[in-house]
Amino acid sequence: MSYREFPVRQNTGRDKWLFGPYPAQSQLLVEMARWQESMTDVILSASTKKSALRDEQEWYHGLMRDLVEITRGDMNLLHRTLICALMTLDVHARDVIELLAHENVETIDNFLWQKQLRYTTPSN
């Protein structure tokens, strides 16, 4: 299953995962579910580590730079469409992270986090 093989918290391997054998729509859903899980963890840690959201913001900018590098490579139309959709989701995620960091969100009950559309997966 693609969810289990997603490269969690790594700057390397995303391109291999994206161009793997999984359907594009499931990859986008997994990306969003993993982002939601990651952000929940970051927000929960923000009450004890004040730089948690800023650190996530920097990490996410690096992830987006890597995605830009991927787009400069040679790929077929399906992969390019997947990357364009993922870039759109990443830009939105980046904006959400910046908003949460600017507003010093420290709890998952904060309305700024609660109002976000989030994708989740059932617990194992």
Report on this model:
This protein is mainly alpha-helical. It has one domain: Up-down Bundle (Methane Monooxygenase Hydroxylase, Chain G, domain 1), CATH 1.20.58.1120. 66% of the residues lie in helices and 0% in strands. It contains 6 helices and no strands. The longest helix has 26 residues.
List the helices and strands and how they pair.
Blueprint: H1 2-5, H2 14-18, H3 24-46, H4 52-71, H5 77-102, H6 111-114
Query: Can you tell me the number of structural domains?
Result: 1
CATH superfamily: Dynein motor heavy chain, linker domain, subdomain 4
Sheet of most strands: none
Low-confidence stretches: none
Can you name the CATH architecture?
Up-down Bundle
Tell me the name of the CATH class: Mainly Alpha
Number of separate helices: 6
